[in-house]
Structure prediction request, 537 residues.
Amino acid sequence: MQIQVRINEEGALRNQRYAFTDRFTLVSELLQNARRAGATHIEVDYDAGTQILVVQDDGGGLDDFQKLLSFHESGWDDATSAEERPFGVGFSKCLYAATRCIVASRHQRVDMDTAAALAKAAIDVEPITEAVTGTRIELHGVDLPDLGNRIETLCLGFPVEVLFNGKPLTRCFAVANLATMASPMGTVHLTGTRDGKFSYNALVFLQGFCVMKPNYGSFDEANVVHLDSRQFMARLPDRDKLIDEDVQKKRIDAELAACWRLTLEVAKAQLSPERFVAIYYAAMRAWGQLDLLNDLDVLPVELFDEIVDYPIQDDDRSYVRQVATAPTRQTVESGAVTLVSLDWLGDDNAARWMLARAKGYLIFDWIGLSSNHWAWRHVRFLDQETVQVEAVSEQIRVQLEGRWVWPTVILCDSVILRSTKDVAEITDAGVCHGDVLYIPAGETSGESVRQASSFIDENDQFLAADLDADRDALTDLIRRLRSVDPVQTLDSLLQELRLGRYPLLHGKAFQVTVGVGIAPSYSVALLTEEGACHAES
Prediction:
């Protein structure tokens, strides 16, 4: 027994109407056929009321009307078949989308009932007196809502002039309307070649129609690629996606990077190093071309931040600011400027940030240069250095009982930060190191709780109220511990207790005695006419 592939022609004809996923594929197929026929001008007219669609082109026309109804036979000449590899199913969409189809070309025409045609009825080809230049296709019973808006998008990259209901379509992404460059994959337009304002997004066209577009961002800011149809194929039947799209996207991205390489090499040869780096650094970094900086003495300003405020755990990093001017190679190599790498601030590296702030180091984004760049030899990776923290003239240490943080607080005259290479003395701001807050004499704000925590919970919610409470608590603690007036200190503590809420205490007088030491005890005596009644703690 033997078996072989068989095709149920009746079933194939019946079911192919469900192959097309988009009703507007009808228009793109007719435009595609006109382009392949050599058209330089196509007119599309649609009347939604009568549901009549007319497509007229000035191409070479039809020499054999049987090609219209020969499914999966391209009917094109050898050159077109080799160049574009047509599938031969395009016109079939007309039979499924319309009730009546009239095609005229040169001195012939057919007027077919599409249901009869799909039933394989014989259709007469009639001679006509007045010759039709190119091909004219008239379809009846075609439902194409919103075609006016859709056809504008459909033809954005189409190479042939198209008029819809008498109005020319813009076709702003057609090759003729763009500045392009040749590429092994086709023709490429790069955005940002003049001003460096690059884009990762790409609009990709095959045979004039979009087969890949960005998920976000403006089309006006996208790169435009017109693929070589000899190398790329679109999926049947709608031909709006590439075959092996994931693989082809990687190739397209690689070719875009190669195009940027050529663009940057030309710009580097034409511009001063300063202008070249200022305009194109972002594009170099984005498209993996950082090695173009290796032989230049100029550094990109985007790589350097100066510490301009108190470092805190803050995603906005408001305590740093990009420098106005990048350091020169001479200042870097001479040591006049120190470049350091630091991770984002946390309680484990706050002391390093405070050392960098005190010494005026520049925070350097070292991954923004090729590993072979000369600046790498002068970068200090401060996170890898041990920084010791020392309290000078420690006065007292207590625990802050905050809402969110409970660090040990050490009051002192100043804080010494010591690495293997540097020493800095901090007198004006607190330093968080581990679970300890070192508070020098010049610090009164309580802001150092923001070095101890970001005040963001497990649900990524910022705890503003807890931050305010803990900052105020630290401010009050510092004030009280440094107070030189015992009455004011006790009064500030009693204010928080709101003793007036307790009627039992109204009008009473007490004697409070506080002991000495790190954790002193106290005694309270109620003063009465008979004497003092004591309570100890």
